[in-house]
Amino acid sequence: MRPLLHREPSISPMKHMFLRMAARVFSSCNRPGLGRSRGRAAWGIPAAVALWLALFCVAALAGGFGTARRDGAWWLTMPGGGVPFFSIGADTTNGGDKRTRDRGYYWENNYPDLAAWAADTQQRLYAWGFNTRGGWSDPTTAMTLPLVPELDLGRLSRLHWFDPFAPDAQAIATAKAREITAPFKDNPAVIGYFTDNEVGWWNAPLFRWYLGNEWAVYTKQVLWRMIHDHYKGDWRRLLVDFVPGKDITGFEDLRKGRAELHLRPGGHGIALIERFTAVCAGKYYELVYKALKAADPDRLVMGDRLPLYYNQDAVLASRGHLDVLSTNYNVDTPDGWVAPYYFEGLARLTDTPVLISEFFFAANENRSGNVNNGHLMHVQTQAERAAGAAAAVRNFAAFPNIAGIHWFQYYDEPSGGRGDGENFNMGLVDIRNVPYEGLVTALAAANRDVPALHAASGGRKASPMPAVIPIARAEAPVVVGDDSLADWPDKAGTRLPWFTVPAPHVPFGDVHMSWSPESLNLFNLAQNYADLYLLAHDGEFPPSESYRINLDVDAGAGMKHFALCLVPRPHSKYPGRFELAPRLYAVAADGSLASLETQGVMQVLDKPLPHIALELALPARLLGVEKLTAGQKLALRIEAITFYRGMTMTLGAPTGKGGAWKTGAAPVAAVLADK
Predict the structure, then answer these.
(1) DSSP string of 417-440?
(2) What per-residue confidence (pLDDT) applies to 62?
(3) Any idea which architecture 468-672 has in CATH?
(4) What b/e sequence results for 493-529 when a residue is b if at least 16 CB atoms lie within 10 Å of its CB, and e otherwise?
(5) Residue range 90-102: mean pLDDT, rounded
(6) Which of 15, 114, 355, 412 is deepest in the core (most CB within 10 A)?
(7) Structural domain boundaries of the chain?
(8) Angle at CA 535, nearest 5°, toward 532 and 541?
(9) Per-residue pLDDT averaged across 137-155, rounded?
(10) End-to-end CA distance of the chain
(11) Are the C-beta atoms of residues 593 and 586 closer than 8 Å to each other?
């Protein structure tokens, strides 16, 4: 089937000949035999030379790299609308930092010159199955690996978090785009550009920042008009949703610098805040897209490398302003599981290919002395690292909307940490330039599998919800309190993929369920962000505004109602940060809450927001039965609600006010399966 190309230039017969040559050579670089033939393509040509020849052949062709959807799967394409390929990249493919050469990776410690470094590094990457230089890589033309530079266009143009609605914003962004793309325009290896890194689109900080600005900031004026018009100039209506800051008594006071509005518990102010985020994001994407298409029209605009999280309203606002959507991603569990909701959601929000601009695994066992100081993905041993990374690659490749995977990064961070203190074993090689053999061998094998796995992904279809949902029996005892989901080995078999969300939004997480005779088990992986200072409240953060799961179960003893709440509070160890405290409640018919013990029953895993990870082993006794048995029927409803009640996803009919049953609503039917 012919790809549906985003750009289809007319190509002469001579150019078709060049394209066929390029296709054959490029394809030889990506065949399974590459990793086993020590960097040689199928004709015996060194891989570095092969891809150089391919790029030489296509350099004269009209246009640049493109995108195509073929048999349901998204791909990048070679210049001229040619060969589809899957981008497998390595970030920071560069010579390192001279300032940390005594404790970190630096080319001069291992090579006589940069040309020797470039040749050896490229040959290594080919042998390990990589075909792209990712963000912050050396743009040297001594390397022929395709390249995606990160530009910092928005930051340098003072767009996001500055004043994107300023009248001269487009002119400034375009001028800056011409300046910073100039070094790349004659390099045929450049696929496209990342506009920025981890812009974020955090609802609460964005709103608070612009509202507190002076009136001279044009984006502050946009926000003020949005607030005024939303409430039709009626201050009393605003007060239902917000608590004003000191000396704020009307709309005119909101024009002042340092103006404050805090969400009122029970109100619906979050809807206005989310709409403002969408407006800001839409303006940013419009500005950078127009700027880059004016500066270098044949290169792909590849997004702002979303920071391990995406705001759904921002993604919706990006439509029409991206050729490729890029997102960094922190793998969910040490076994390489990738929560499907994340990429299935992106496929529904935007009809755009996705590139994973950053993922990694680190291990405490490493040769660089990295301590892995943080919540990012790390395991104990290099063997665990290799297995988890390879599994993640194969899991990523099975999503039809993912067109590329970039590993972060080529070398380990310096012993003692980089400038900002981060100190992780992220490298394919250590600080002395020695490869982690187990990791690169495992990745080489996984990378060889990627094209076939991805080609088959286009047939991936959502299964309809059965009349009776089978709940899988737990393969191992579910231990709550171990800060782990290792007791859920069959995550595909326990997932409940039938949650619904009012359009245009999509589910913001996955819910899994299993059972054992002693308990009904659940875990939830999701993304949501909260700001402790956005909500007006005294004492503990109110459960009604927390991240909440309403769980209603009838196991034969009548319907039982529970609420699982994650309550933000100041962090017990790190000043200025906050953590989530688990709370479990029995919910009465009137919506009132009675606290239940969480020890050994419910845990929140140690992941910083915006990541949500909670686990529940609900004792059978709380369901009113002595034990659970295979074949037992359940009536079930699950409802997950984000902070401030911004979004709701539901399995079964929605609840009424306060978590009570809606009159006449019916749950879904489920059965406890034997396997």
Answers:
(1) --TTS------SB-TTS-B-HHHH
(2) 53
(3) Sandwich (2.60)
(4) ebbbbbbebeeebbbbbbbbbbbbebbbbbbbbbbbb
(5) 97
(6) 355
(7) 69-140+309-457, 203-278, 468-672
(8) 65
(9) 95
(10) 40
(11) yes
